[in-house]
Amino acid sequence: MGIAYMGTSFGGVVFSLLLNPIFEHFEWREAMWIVTGIVAIFVGVGNLCVEGRLPGRESAGRVNLSCFKDMRFVWITIGVCCEFSSEKGEEGSETKLTEK
Predict the structure, then answer these.
(1) d(C-alpha 73, C-alpha 76), whole Å
(2) What's this model's pTM, rounded to 2 decimal places?
(3) CA-CA distance, 66 to 7, in Å (whole number)?
(4) Taking each helix axis from N to C terminus, what angle separates 28-49 and 2-25, rounded to the nearest 10 degrees?
């Protein structure tokens, strides 16, 4: 738990120092893509370094897609993907309500 607390503090300092020069050279959208890439790299390395706590099965593959057998999970996943992929998201629904 202490490593997680230390990581959040370290990340807050490093990202603050890192974002100033990024914003000077890039716009907001490009800067967020850069930050997303940095976070994805660190999360990927972290996932590769973590050892599983449960014993693995010999016949199982690396990716288990059995969760998609439950149609409730499938529909929730589709709904979340549609919400995040919409152009306006919640801002569009707020403006529609206030314009009437």
Answers:
(1) 5
(2) 0.48
(3) 33
(4) 150
Q: What pLDDT shows up at residue 59? A: 57
Q: In angstroms, rounded to a whole number, what is the distance separating the alpha carbons of residues 16 and 10?
A: 10
Contact at 8 Å (CB) between 15 and 35? yes
Nearest to 34 by CA among 53, 52, 48, 20: 20
Question: Residue written as tokens 């890192």?
Answer: 18
Buried b (16+ CB within 10 A) or exposed e, 38-67: eeeeeeeeeeeeeeeeeeeeeeeeeeeeee
Structure token digits, residue 24: 């000077």
Instruction: Please determine, for residue 15, whether its predicted confidence score (pLDDT) is greater than 90.
Output: no
pLDDT higher for 76 or 59?
A: 76
Sign of CA dihedral 25, 27, 30, 36: positive
